[in-house]
Design brief:
alpha/beta; Rossmann fold; 5 helices
Length: 141
């Protein structure tokens, strides 16, 4: 059901038209995407795949992106996340960071800024992955 490519990005957005707008820009840049507006589907995707970057809307209909990420952080998942929030207050920024995100943008996010932030998250994920591989004990065959 979900992609298995290494550099796949999960985009969870509450409004379908905005989901397609952001996804089109990410796809044109070369990212492989899994995308949904449904929190239940996002939970399944996150349980089946480690994403180098997750783009989450803070408000997802009856649920919130912070609640979704908090559940996965509690389970030990370490995916890097970027929140999109309609409100630019310090309180919202603090809620996003407390929920486990590495970054947040105010909606509507400018596409060049969104692309730059996703690139930074993917790069950070790859550096961490490389560091983990180097610190692992050698495997004897």
């Amino acid at each position: 059901m979900f992609r298995t490519k290494l550099l796949c990005t999960l985009v969870v957005k509450g409004v379908p038209t905005m989901l397609m707008f952001y996804c089109q820009s990410l796809l044109q840049t070369g990212y492989a995407l899994d995308k949904t507006t449904d929190v239940a589907i996002a939970r399944i995707a996150l349980s089946q795949h480690a994403y180098p970057a997750i783009v989450l809307d803070k408000q997802l209909g009856d649920d919130s992106g912070t609640d979704l990420l908090r559940v996965f952080r509690a389970a030990g998942d370490t995916e890097t996340a970027l929140f999109l929030a309609a409100d630019s207050t310090t309180q919202v920024a603090q809620e996003c960071l407390a929920g486990g995100t590495q970054d947040h943008l105010v909606k509507p996010a400018e596409i060049p800024t969104l692309l730059q932030r996703v690139h930074r998250l993917v790069t950070r994920w790859l550096v961490d992955l490389d560091a983990d591989a180097r610190s692992a004990p050698p495997v004897l065959v």
